[in-house]
Every structure is written in C-alpha cells, then in structure tokens.
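Protocol step 4 of 6: record predicted structures for both targets in the notebook before any analysis. Target 1:
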Amino acid sequence: MRLLFVLLFAACGDKTPPAPAAAPVEAAAAPVEAAPEAPPEPPPPPPEVINASLNVTITYANGTSKTGKVKRIERSDDLFGEKGEWHTDAKKLTMNGDAGSASKDFAWTDVKGITIVPGKIPAEIDCTYESDYQPWMYDCTLKTTATAVLKDNSKWVVGTRNKWKMTFEDNESVEFWLFKHPAREQDEKVVDLDTRDAENLALYTKLQNRLREEVKGNLVVKVTVNGG
C-alpha cells in the first residue's frame, strides 16, 4: 500500500502550467518611397535678336536674287565663320572702307549698295594650308573687290574680311563675304614625320574648282539696301 501511495502522490503532484502562446508578430510595414521629384523646367529660349529693319536685295552671280526685309545682321567673330560665334551688337557691325588716302567706318544703315567683283581664276586665287589644324586645313581664297556706295553717294572700297549673315523676316539667312572669298576644307589624312608628299595638291585643285562653280552660281555679287 505504501508503494501505491507514493506513486499516486507523484502522479498527482504540482504540474508547471504550459507557457502562454506567443502573440503573432505583425510584419513590418514596407517603407513608403517618396515620389520622384519632377525634372526642372527647361529654361526659356533666349529672345530672338532683332537688330535691323532694312529692305534688302541680295543678287547672286547666276542672276537670281533674294528680296525682303532683313531683321537681323550678324558678323562672324573669326574671318571664316567657323567658330560659330556671331556678333549682333551695333559696334561690331561696321565695315571699313578706303577711298584714296581716306579711310572710313560705316554701318549697313549708311549703305545704298555694295557691288562685289570677283577676281580671275586661277590668277587671283591664293592657296595655302594651315598646319595648326590636325589634319591640315586647306584654303584657296579668291580676291574680290567690293565697292560700297553710301547714302551720301560717296564710294568706298571695303576691306573688312569677316563673314556677314543677313536673316530675313521669313527666317531665311544669307551668308557672304565682301572682301576676299575663301573655299576651305580639312584634309582627311594626318601628317606625321613618316608622311611622304605631305602637301595635298589635289585638294588645292578641288578648292579652285569649287570657286569656279561659285563664281558662276551662288556667289553674292551685289547687296542693295532700299531703306527701312
């Protein structure tokens, strides 16, 4: 009996209550991504430069012409208009003329007309190359004589070499030179110490032929200003 009592006591002894079930863990909310910032608005285009109001007729060597109101006159910063910088300030838009021993600066508003007479080909073409460029730049420049008649009827031989650009109200632009008309092209090959026959004589011929075509075609030979 004693053994049975011990067994019953052991079976009926205190029991440790089960641990309470853990509360379910809620998943962390995903971070809310901020909306991407809108790209900045592009800056407005610069206002159109309008610095002239002249009725102009431009005549080409082939007899065709362009007539209309010019709203903008520009002059290239470099002689050839290759750097892409054009001046529109009035102080940069004057040209220089000679008459005997006299010299005069004048603006397009002073001009009645300019006649441009090209020289003879090939006698009055000067060809050279510029080794500052890589590849070399080749240049054949035709001599021209530009005579300006001003509103006071005085005549002046223009000596300003920079390129001119006139933009009409229909946005068509005409570019031209008054004094000396160049034809330029960069060579395809780079000259180094191992190059034989470095000077490209064939390119001189090509540029001279281009000038021959321009003298018969789209060379500007007259600019007539009919007032504003």
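Target 2:
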Amino acid sequence: MRARGRLSGYDEAMENNKLKYPDPALPTYEGLDAWREGEYETRHVSVPYAGIDYQKHTINGYDVDPDTIEFLP
C-alpha cells in the first residue's frame, strides 16, 4: 500500500544537527526531505521483559509519525 508520511522526530533531528556536539542517538536525516512517499508497512514490536509494546510505522524503511500518514491511490 502506498502512502506519504513525515519522518518521525524530524524537527528534533534538525535541531540536534545544529548543535556543536549533536546527540549520536538521534538520526541526522541528512539530505532528506521531511516527507517520505512510497511503500507503507506496519508491524507490531513487543519485548515484554523490557515493557516495550508498540506499532512501528515505516515508509520505504524510514520510521514515520503515524499521525501524518496519508494513503495514496
């Protein structure tokens, strides 16, 4: 299914890139636009012993904010 969505944490990553010593744990998204378009996938991620349980949303392998996803014809 094709969709369009905004990269997860894009604004935070851009602010981080401006720092003298950026946090290496954040993506840089260097050279990428805020929006990705392509093949949309979702999968359930669960690690019970660590208390992790969420739905991962990606477009062409990039994490996207699920609130921004627009499905394309």
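Step 5 preliminary note on target 2. The CA atoms of residues 28 and 42 lie 23 Å apart. Strands lie at 2-6, 35-47, 52-59, 62-63, 70-71.
Proceed to step 6 after PI sign-off.
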